[in-house]
Amino acid sequence: xxxxxxxxxxxxxxxxxxxxxxxxxxxxxxxxxxxxxxxxxxxxxxxxxxxxxxxxxxxxxxxxxxxxxxxxxxxxxxxxxxxxxxxxxxxxxxxxxxxxxxxxxxxxxxxxxxxxxxxxxxxxxxxxxxxxxxxxxxxxxxxxxxxxxxxxxxxxxxxxxxxxxxxxxxxxxxxxxxxxxxxxxxxxxxxxxxxxxxxxxxxxxxxxxxxxxxxxxxxxxxxxxxxxxxxxxxxxxxxxxxxxxxxxxxxxxxxxxxxxxxxxxxxxxxxxxxxxxxxxxxxxxxxxxxxxxxxxxxxxxxxxxxxxxxxxxxxxx
Length: 317
Hints:
The chain is about 35% helix and about 15% strand. A hairpin with a 4-residue loop joins strand 6 and strand 7. The strands form 3 sheets. Strands 9-10-7-6-5-8-11 form a 7-stranded mixed beta sheet. A two-stranded antiparallel ribbon has the order 1-2. Strands 3-4 form a two-stranded antiparallel ribbon. The chain is α+β, with helices and mostly antiparallel strands.
């Protein structure tokens, strides 16, 4: 494996040729492995057994749904193995629930949402490819073309400045969000923690890359979770930044949009003409004073009204 990847001080892996954690050129995806490396290094809080079980269930469901659509199924034995594994972990999760363990349903919801992002991203890639290859019906996944489509239409909004920015509303260790500014590392001033316990737990790993600076950096853009933590109220003075990765428009403009940490939620245009000027697949949306919205169909994200348009900035390559 050393011939195709490199590792950093925390044991996180990246493709050797391009230094990416996910690389379509090389056909490599280290993201799940890197999350485990961060936990093992003490940089991130370890997921609970409930969370790990829920994630396995979500992976099995995603795999089975994909196999169900195959005609004929490529591997019947693998399909049956996934079914048995799914039942095993569903029974395990139910035992946690029966024993009074808290957060079981929430853990499963989050795990399924995470897997749903993979489905949305694939649909987004296929949508972008179809527009660039009219008349063609077969798309090859992987390689240079896929990487270019990913970077242009699917990747999280790209950091445009080399200057460090601070994460002020999400704990760098346990990933909980807050509507109030969290206590910050006083040395590097780029990461925050919800309490001293989290900071102490993360320090052994964090100190290896904690570089002292004098001036507090500007804040990173808001994520979906940070906006949602305000419960639907307007987040005054802050900016949500997302990329429109999948066009689901019908009678009004609707896009699935990815934030800088990879979470995908829906943005819908409730403007007078049911559109957002300049918005297209791949656009980066920056919304000042955003607010979260829960739609009637159970999805969530943002509802853009006519009066919100002056606070929107749409960037296209």
